[in-house]
Design brief:
16% strand; alpha/beta; 42% helix; 7 strands; two-stranded antiparallel sheet; globular; single chain
Length: 206
């Protein structure tokens, strides 16, 4: 049943408070992955790119990874990462300890937590490695959807929102998606107004 206007306002305020709390917590990090497919369709799905960002927009860890098998053209068409680009990159087991170190005791936020965290944990299990010990997990898409307040009668819940491309850069890149996720959190918190974006903001020189 669709919430009342009063209830929608409460959801929006709760999402705003969540965003403010995450931005006030220096242990918050943003995680995004690009993959070789979807786990629900292919149990051999692996990570092709990972980025972990801090609240200042600095990459704590960002790297292409070599999957155990070549990627198909459909997947390459989505994230534009070719097999040639990853052929000489490290494999997941080679960098897993670094990922665990970076994520240790952090509160991990991902736009689609169900996808990113599930795949990351799957990778650790696949290679018989202990998964990262984190302080907490949050799905920013869920919070942003509650903040946006669009109701879906079909799913009888809030309509899932697509990650906004605030920065106007190529989407489906792990680092770009992390930065857009951070902007979405800042927008919910009232710390960012996309209408005030300048060219300098968009063309950040990393």
């Amino acid at each position: 049943m669709k919430p009342t206007d009063s209830q929608l306002a409460e959801y929006k305020e709760a999402a705003k408070q969540w965003a403010q709390e995450r931005l006030a917590d220096g242990n918050t990090v943003i995680l995004d992955l690009e993959s070789t497919g979807l786990l629900r369709e292919d149990p051999e799905t692996e990570i092709a790119q990972i980025c972990i960002l801090d609240l200042q927009g600095r990459p704590l860890f960002s790297m292409l990874l070599k999957p155990s098998q070549p990627m198909n053209e459909k997947v390459i068409g989505i994230h534009k990462i070719s097999n040639e680009q990853v052929i000489n990159q490290p494999t997941f087991p080679q960098i897993a300890k670094i990922i665990s170190f970076v994520l240790r005791n952090k509160h991990v936020v991902a736009w689609n937590l169900d996808f990113d965290w599930k795949l990351l944990v799957h990778m650790f299990k696949k290679y018989d490695l202990p998964k990262p010990e984190v302080a907490g997990l949050s799905c920013s898409m869920d919070k942003y959807s509650e903040w946006a307040g669009e109701w879906s009668t079909k799913k009888d819940g809030f309509k899932w929102q697509k990650l906004p491309n605030f920065l106007g850069e190529e989407a489906h890149d792990a680092q770009v998606d992390c930065r857009n996720t951070l902007k979405a959190i800042q927008k919910m918190a009232g710390a960012f107004n996309e209408e005030e974006l300048t060219v300098d903001d968009i063309d950040l020189d990393f």
